[in-house]
Amino acid sequence: MYIGVDYYPEQWPRERWDTDLKLMKELGINVVRIAEFGWSVMEPEEGAYDFSLIDDAIAAIESYGFDVVLGTPTATPPAWLIEKYPDVLPADDHGNVIGFGARRHYTVNSEVYQQLTKQIVEEMAKRYGSHPAVIGWQVDNEYGHEKSDRSYSETDRKAFQSWLQEKYESLDELNERWGTVFWSQTYTNWSQIPVPKKVYQEHNPSLLLDFDRFCAEAYNRYNRLQVETLRKYIADRQFITHNFVYSGLSQDQKEMAKDLDFISFDNYPVWGGLADPISPAAIARQHDLCRGTKNGKGYWVMEELSGAQGWSQIGYLPRPGHLKLWTYQAISRGAEAIVYFRWRAARYGTEQFCHGILDHDGKPRRKYNEVKDVITSLEGFADQWIESEIPADVGFYHDPENDWAWQIQPQSDQFNYIGEFLRFYEPAHSLNAQGNIIRDDEDLSRYKVVVVPVYFLTKKTFNDRLKDYVANGGTVIFSYRTGVKDEDNIVTDQTLPGDLAGLAGIQVHEYESLRGGKSGRVKGVAGAVEGLSSSASVWCDYIEPETAEVLATYEDSWFQDRAAVTKNKYGEGTVYYVGAGIESPMLQKLYASIFEETNLTYTETAENVELVRRESEEASYLSVLNHDVEEGHEVALPEGEWTDAASGEKHTGVLEIPRLGSLVLEKRKQH
Ligand code: GAL
User: Of 29, 126, 373, 629, which is most buried, counting CB atoms within 10 Å of its CB?
Assistant: First the structure.
């Protein structure tokens, strides 16, 4: 297994390199990522290449027996480049040019920038494409991050217009599908179509959605340019990857991943300014997304947090135990390599307060020792562990296009796609039921339950797959705002939930968007939720059951006879519809009953204790991860004797897991 560090040799005196590398050796790493922001070092002037620093750094790293991952430096176009080619700069939605001074200051639609990218990538590929120490490449760094996913310059406008022309072929088609008759927006020339810069009210939602699609495709093309350039020169054994961000950007990671050997991810469970880490389920969601991006293929964590992070604001200091816990959680869920960010905190530049394994004074202390313990603990078993399968019984539908449609029309100040996705993911996570995050193109029949949260922007082909899946015995959980829009971001003319009304056996005639501070109440009247009560925030669909059974109703003086949660039999299968933003305890009860009915493996644990199962021909693995910062917990182990894969200690029955404890248990299979 690869374990390493992100290192910036250009930021430290050469005399220090050897000390760093010695310390890395003692730490037990085997790979180092470098160079992803090193453009001005490698090309100090246009066309004048100087690879001496990178050559020397690679030689030094290699002399310690480490492998190297090289970044292409295109996230930071240098000052000379911007001075000479200012048109590569992107613009924000006010049309203001984003200036030089930080990073990601380019638009992927600039042909000049594409050409400049090709040149630097080509030079690097020629130089290091067969270097024995270089095992692979990370192209660019976090595409689209820091609001660089959408750019609104003149260059972008022209590219958007050509993209639309290719997509719709005729203006009549575009006008019809966008409904431009509304507010006199009928276009008579392609050149009239704007990029969605600031307007008095809001842009046409169909235009906005297409703009997001266009931005995502433009990045995919830009990534492909880098990949194809590299492939021309590099050895087959060298891989190409990119470190993704999954925070609702106008990016389609799954499409982009088709051009990469595997994907990478930067794992920051807590970042600058955050008072506490994000929830265990929120971290798990990101890992599941990574695993799903290339259909189950293992991925690298190219940046695994190793210290408190921040630019001008510093966030939460990860507690002793966190680094191991988050590393184990990542590997449990599909990461097959971990690279810690960063080796040492920088003394200058924007990221002075992004702490690393070492801090500014460069002395190894608590965090260094902790990473060392993690690496030592993994030595005996990690290779077999990362090869094992991650069983998955639940499919969670998660589509960036749906996310974009929600960003365009959140409908409530309470709505946030990731938050609402988590509302319907978290109960399964809490019950330690395992699942995959899926898109509309996957085979549903392998899942016992498919959860389709806030399915607002629908896709006809996916609707049909869901209908087939349920007809053949599958179980689907839908939520409020299902079936509202078609792929053009146009509201359906059918009674809600539109095309899926028959499947859910309900109609929704009225609904209410709940703003901050407002909530309703829902009470369970049948099934597993009977007698339970929950607040309902964000949204209430007032449901009229047709063929569905009512499981919960509203406690609202106006709408108290309306259903809030229903269950419908359809063909051989079952469809649940949760009409309101109810809270986790009620959802957990509902999920547990659905898991019972579908014979799905789940285990109840104390809050914040996460279990992850993996299976190989030889062994079963069970990760026990206690995210609780305050308290230890007891975990009832599945039958049999389990061995702590790191220490060899045996466990049966009940395991005591200390606060922030993490371990992997193993049970060999008898053949
Ligand atoms: C990541 C980024 C790194 C560094 C880090 C700071 O998003 O890829 O270059 O900025 O955050 O925590």
Answer: 29
